[in-house]
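Schema walk-through. Below, the input block comes first and the output block second. Nothing else is stored per chain. Lengths vary across the set, and this one has 137 residues.
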Amino acid sequence: MENSEEPGETRVCVPAAAPPGPPPPPPPAPKKGCPKCFRPVDADAEYCPRCGARQGGGDGWYFHPVWILVLAFAVLGPFALFLVWKSKRMGFAVKLLMAAVILAYTFMCVWSTYELIAFELRHINDFREMMRELSGK
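--- output ---
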């Protein structure tokens, strides 16, 4: 056999192509914890396979800060605090600020209602006294 290498040359061995086989398995899906049962759930799952809890909560239109304020001032009042704390669209500082605004608005509404009722009761009593004086009793 004759050596075909020249001095100073290096040989490169290229491995033969491997026979086609089954493709490698896909990497495992990233996991996250279920907020209800705390068991691992695939990151792209919409519902927990064990307890059935929805995994993507906090992204409905009613979790937007503007709509939370509209609902709080027009309909829900302090019950909108649930939406504030469940929303994923706001940071902790914004949630605290919104909770303070909603609670202040609620206090103002309750105080105004109290003052209105007290005002009406005073006028009803004044009217009753005036009617007693007119009737002579």
